[in-house]
Design a protein that fits this description.
The protein has helices at residues 21-24, 55-61, 87-101, 113-124, 146-163, 169-182, 185-189, 193-202, 230-239, 255-258, 260-271; strands at residues 32-35, 39-44, 65-70, 106-111, 129-135, 217-222, 243-248. By secondary structure, it is an alpha/beta fold. The chain folds into two domains: 21-142 and 200-271, Rossmann fold, CATH 3.40.50; 146-189, no CATH class. The longest helix is centred in the middle third of the chain and has 18 residues, at 146-163. The two termini are 27 Å apart.
Length: 280
């Protein structure tokens, strides 16, 4: 559902000539919930899920806000992109969506891969995001160990065997099965364009973008998050100029669902027009 840190082990991030959403508008067109009036708040979900996972917190966030809650391309009711996307195509797509809706500036909540997209969007399009909440955000690529490097080499060898015309078909099929088994659950569940998209996303390290986030950022992390470890949240707090970290004790990767009332209360204080002290 949210194993965004390790997809297939193929390190190729070329993606085969993807088309930026910003160049061609909001393609594919978003399936979204757009409700309420007030200052716009854009909510971006994680990998392998849809905007439905935000339903438990929408009422708590609603007062005084226009909630814009899309299914990201390839998830929920929004079609897949035409070719594998990077985080930058997703960020451009979000900007194109806001342009269609006539929204110049938003506050943003991004969970997991949605946080990754939010980081790219805020860094690349200054002024489009006024304040941002990153919940268990992706974006920090793990350092490669000797063991992980060996796994990558083994994976690439299996894929080469799968494509080799010199090997018997039975051996090629066996190599393909072994390679598929070495990928993460998210990688095995994805196919075609979305598998290529996942590979591109998890091979992007956004830490160089973090110092470019010149806006208030609230980081909310589950103490026991195994998908985006708490150390990633601490690193983001260190690298983002105006950031604060709140840790939800006992929570995991979906901390906002495990403690929704607390999440909404903290976010409400953070997003107020008047400066307020965020308290756990």
């Amino acid at each position: 559902m949210a194993a965004h840190r390790s997809a297939g082990l193929n390190g190729d991030t070329s993606g085969g000539g993807s088309t930026a959403a910003g160049a061609s508008g909001e393609i594919p067109r978003a399936a979204l919930e757009d409700r309420g009036t007030g200052h716009p708040l854009l909510l971006l979900h994680g990998w392998g899920v849809s905007s439905e996972l935000f339903v438990p917190i929408l009422d708590g966030l609603q007062p005084g806000r226009r909630l814009i809650v899309p299914d990201l391309p390839g998830f929920g009711a929004t079609p897949e992109p035409g070719s594998p996307w990077s985080v930058h195509e997703y960020a451009a797509w979000c900007v194109a969506l806001l342009d269609r809706l006539g929204v110049a500036t938003v506050d943003l909540i991004g969970h997991s891969n949605g946080g990754r997209i939010g980081i790219a969007m805020a860094a690349t399009y200054p002024g489009r995001v006024s304040r941002m909440v990153l919940a268990g955000s992706a974006g920090i690529r793990p350092r490669q160990t000797l063991r992980s490097a060996a796994r990558v080499r083994a994976y690439k060898l299996l894929r080469a065997m799968e494509r080799s015309g010199a090997l018997p078909s039975a051996l090629r099929r066996a190599a393909a099965r072994r390679a598929d088994q070495r990928g993460s659950a998210d990688y095995r569940a994805a196919s075609g364009v979305m598998r290529g998209t996942l590979v591109r996303l998890v091979n992007e390290d956004l830490r160089t973008l973090l110092p470019r986030l010149h806006l208030p950022v609230l980081l909310i992390w589950g103490e026991h998050d195994t998908e985006s470890p708490l150390d990633d949240g601490r690193l983001m707090e260190h690298l983002i100029p105006d950031a604060g970290l709140v840790v939800f004790e006992g929570a995991g990767h979906f901390a906002y669902l495990e403690q929704p009332a607390r999440f909404c209360r903290i976010v409400e204080v953070f997003l107020r027009d008047e400066p307020g002290q965020v308290s756990a």
